[in-house]
Amino acid sequence: MKSLFAFLLIGFVSITASTTSFAAQDTVQFTLEIVAEDQIILNSVTRVTTGLNAIEVLSQVVAMGIKDTDWGPMIVSLGGVKAVGNTYWSLYVNGKMSMVGAQDVIIDADTIISLILTEF
Asked: What pTM, to 2 d.p., does this model score?
């Protein structure tokens, strides 16, 4: 009986320790809004691990096509909607147009990303 109790106690302590280490991992709220032709085609809210860049997080949330360029990766499609001709996916972070690409946007706090299919 003592050995069963010791076994259960060790198992409980092990489970509690592993759960605590998972919960201690920093996460933040990530909101993604994708707009094409003036209509929201995706609105998603999830929790993500801090320190990831927007490309890494986006790839977890939506099917995405990327083209490698001299300036870094360029998003060419989101959820099956392609930027063709004179359109591109403009990137907004917390309501402001980003001055850097999605690869350089680090998610370290609650963040709202909007990707809007835009004509130039």
From this structure: 0.78
